[in-house]
Amino acid sequence: MKTSYDKPLNLGQTLFRLRKERGSTQQEVGEFVGVSKVAISKWENGLNLPDISSLPLLASYFNVSIDQLLGYEAQLSEEQAHSIYANLARTLGGASNDRVDQAGGKADSRQEQSAAPTPESARKVWTSVQALIKRYYSSPILLLSMGIFVLNHYDLLPGPHTMDHDRIYLERARELFARVRELSSDAKLIDRANKNEAYCLLLLRRPQDVLKLLGEHMDELFPGETLIASAQQQLGRTEDALETTQASIFQYATVLVSQLASYLPLIRSSSTAVIATAERGEALITTFRLEDLSPVIVLNFRLSLACAYADLGVTDGARQALQAYADLLATAAFPITRHGDEYFSRIDHWLETIGVDAPAPRLSGLYEQNMSLLPFRHPQLGGLLQTEPFAPLAAQLKTMKR
Q1: Please, where in the chain does CATH 1.10.260.40 lie?
Q2: Does domain 78-105+112-214 sit in CATH 1.25.40?
Q3: 335 preceded by cis ω (within 30°)?
Q4: How far apart are the first and last CA of the chain?
Q5: Which residue, 158, 116, 155, is CA-closest to 369?
Q6: Taking 50 as the threshold, does the pLDDT of residue 98 lie above it?
Q7: What is the pLDDT of residue 110?
Q8: Which segments carry the region annotation Disordered (predicted)?
Q9: CA distance 230 to 138
Q10: How far apart are CA 141 and CA 75, in angstroms?
């Protein structure tokens, strides 16, 4: 697999461009470096390469760095990193370029679904990832993007599917996030790297390292977006203030439902707490119409709720939660994307620009298949799905295993 960022170094074209911009002749450049005009011509036409000792002189003559002279981009923009991520994800699934909506909008149809990657496509993608990491090892934004890519797709990358397979890729992703922390002085970038590294550590079952990295005590929340929106308003940038505030509300609503999903396993011994959490979670989902705007968050919440009810032995609650889960999974528009509506009317632009922490959705057909299998893998819920009252639900979920 090649991307527009796999191009080789091309000194000849760069040398020709710099010489023309400076208005110098090949003779003048040759005299400065101590070679003939013919040698400069050969360099520019790619027929020969200068001795390495000539590179500092050439760079000095044109007042550029050696990297610039060689046409080497040590850094990539967030947009470039995002584009690379999307290309890799498409190649891994064999999907066409228009299957993943880069603008953050809904796909027109659910008919095309990503197939599982072939061994060849997985190998090509991993080779490309390794080459990109090597080429841009000093670009923190690219390394963050590649770390997130590996974290999202490690189970699809080449090799026998053993515990060692997953551990190797998760450790590689963790190393990339640690490298970002070493390279960058951007507080936001470091924070993103730390949190993604912590997630890797959790999957690697290293909880003490998670606490060492993030600390044990949660700081009081001080939302900076409120200050940003107020400053934008004072500057007369009302539209920007509206977008900032809407994006903040949207995030808090989705994060709160996600937190409730994480809370449920902690309270599964208390039916009262589980029922109260179910009521509050569903109220949030309804109020902010999250089934449509952020269906993955809702699916995770309902599956967590069904598992909690199953652990408690509350079969009616488990069946209702799982039915709501299956119905949403069956009707959600794939590829699944987050988007605004008439209330969140200004968040689509923000969703387009939030960068590699929200890259192109993981191969949506595979995601749908995996989500349909998850209920069967939970011990208590999987057991209930083998019983007669749950037979229609089990059949409904199995039909999604395309």
Answers
A1: 11-69
A2: yes
A3: yes
A4: 27
A5: 116
A6: no
A7: 30
A8: 96-121
A9: 36
A10: 8
Taking the C-alpha atoms of residue 257 and residue 282, their distance in angstroms, rounded to an integer, is: 9
Write out the DSSP string of 265-287: GGGTT-HHHHHHHHHHHHHHHHH
- Range(s) for CATH 1.25.40 in the chain? 78-105+112-214
How far apart, in whole angstroms, are the C-alpha atoms of residue 261 and residue 211? 21
Check: CB of residue 66 under 8 Å from CB of residue 33: no
365 pLDDT tier (thresholds 50, 70, 90)? low
CA dist 69 and 321 (Å) reads: 61
Contact assessment for residue 298 and residue 329, using Cβ atoms and an 8 Å cutoff: no
Q: What is the pLDDT of residues 110-169, one digit of tens each?
A: 333 345 678 888 999 999 999 999 888 889 999 999 999 999 899 889 988 787 999 999
Answer whether 0.85 is exceeded by the pTM. Answer: no
In terms of phi and psi (left: phi > 0; alpha: psi -120 to 50; beta: otherwise), the region of 236 is left
Taking CA atoms, 271 is separated from 56, 64, 262, in Å, by 73, 68, 16
Report the pLDDT value the prediction gives residue 119, as an integer from 0 to 100.
84
